[in-house]
Specification:
The chain is 7% helix and 26% strand. The protein is mainly β. The chain has one domain. The structure holds zinc ion (ZN).
Length: 74
């Protein structure tokens, strides 16, 4: 079963999860189908473009080698 990106409908590559209490969002590799309430599937492109809401932190737990290195933010 292939899950599709909630943004573009492309093949899913990552799962976005979040915790309201900690104001944390994180990305994991999409290895098992995401069940209801477990997170949101994203394609690699949209996962890489992910920016957390203001005041939230984004952690990338993916092991996938990225095509482009993320920009360093001073
Ligand atoms: Zn997408």
């Amino acid at each position: 079963m292939i899950q599709t990106c909630i943004r573009c409908g492309g093949p899913g590559a990552a799962v976005l999860s979040f915790n309201y209490d900690d104001r944390a969002v994180w990305l994991d590799d999409l290895v098992t189908p995401v069940g209801p309430g477990e997170g949101h599937p994203f394609c690699a492109l949209h996962a890489n473009r992910m920016t957390p809401p203001l005041g939230w932190t984004l952690t990338d737990h993916r092991n996938t080698t990225r095509l482009f290195a993320p920009l360093e933010v001073a």
